[in-house]
Amino acid sequence: MKALSVKQPWATELLGPKDIENRSWRLPTQYLGVPIALHASKQKSFDEFWNFRHLVVTKNILDASDPDSGLCVYGAIIGTIIFSRVLTLDEEKREINSPWAFGPFCWVKAAVTTCETPIPCRGSLGVWKMPDNVELEVWRQLRGKS
Q: In this predicted structure, which of 18-22, 41-45, 48-52, 141-145 has the lowest mean pLDDT?
């Protein structure tokens, strides 16, 4: 299983109401429709929290969580995510029009599963291969959800 690192609070929101992951690059088609481990980056960034709050307020997103609630985990796999397709921002606005979309590429979330417990792990850029022991723990936790 491959993994994707996402900064907080965006990673936590992907397990909830956030239906679009915004990236500057297209997700390769071989990763569409398959589970990808969702890694919450270790880096804590004031800018990311400010950007999150700004988006929630300006787009009037009512179901977003409070990033200061203590729910954000750092440096761990927190779940899995399946993306169904990748749209440009213009395509996304015509087809979905999610308040979470700001592109330039919008990865459309199809499904998520939350880990029972976060699995500590170092992240990386792009879509990356997890260490074998982390991948085994992800699959163990996923089996418990079926």
A: 141-145
Q: Which domain holds residue 34?
A: 2-145
User: pLDDT (tens digit, 9 = 90+) per residue, 62-118?
Assistant: 777 776 667 789 999 999 999 999 999 999 999 999 999 999 999 999 999 999 999
Number of domains comprising the chain: 1
pLDDT at 11: 95
Strand arrangement, sheet containing 105-120: 20-23, 105-120, 76-88, 36-40, 2-6, 127-129
Cα–Cα distances (Å) from 65 to 25, 44, 76, 79, 125, in that order, read 27, 17, 19, 17, 26
H-run or E-run covering 94: helix 89-95
CATH at residue 122 = 2.30.130.30
